[in-house]
Amino acid sequence: MNPTQVRLVQESFAKVAPISETAAVLFYDRLFEIAPTVKAMFPADMTEQRKKLMAMLAAVVNGLANLESILPAASALAKRHVAYGAKPEHYPVVGSALLWTLEKGLGDAWTADVADAWTAAYGTLSGFMISEAYGRRSQAAE
After folding, report:
1. Domain boundaries defined on the chain
2. Cβ-contact 73, 59 below 8 angstroms
3. Residue-by-residue DSSP string for 12-81
4. CATH, domain 3-141, list 3.40.50.20, 3.30.1050.10, 2.10.220.10, 1.10.490.10
5. What's this model's pTM, rounded to 2 decimal places?
6. CA gap 10, 35 in Å, rounded
7. Model pLDDT for residues 56-99, shown as the tens digit of each residue
8. CA separation for the pair 140, 142 (Å, rounded)
9. Any residues with CB less than 8 A from the CB of 124 and at least 6 apart, and which?
10. CA dihedral of 39, 41, 46, 50, whole degrees rounded to 10
């Protein structure tokens, strides 16, 4: 990611943060719509899960300018996801739900440049997390 992309992600997330509860509901509704089988990995009461999602997104977005600072937390999260039943093929689906949510939340502020910046950010982090959780060999085997 380049500095412009980092800035675009951070600026756009700042616009979504005030509607974080709504954004989290939109995200999980979309995720369960496009990947209904993953719903079993989540608790029936999603209140805490939605808060955790937005807190993690905020931490990642705030740390993008210093990527090394967020990699340990991303690694730990990736390894916890394995225990929940997450697989490498879930990451693109989650990314799709995230981008959809941001597009809905940002409205006219969702531009091609913002979309590209978020795609780069998610690709960087999800690639790292997959590698940390499954290793390169098992990722290719999945």
Report:
1. 3-141
2. yes
3. HHHHHGGGHHHHHHHHHHHHHHH-GGGGGGS-S--HHHHHHHHHHHHHHHHHGGGGGGTHHHHHHHHHHH
4. 1.10.490.10
5. 0.89
6. 28
7. 999 999 999 998 999 999 999 999 999 888 999 999 999 999 99
8. 6
9. 1, 67
10. -100
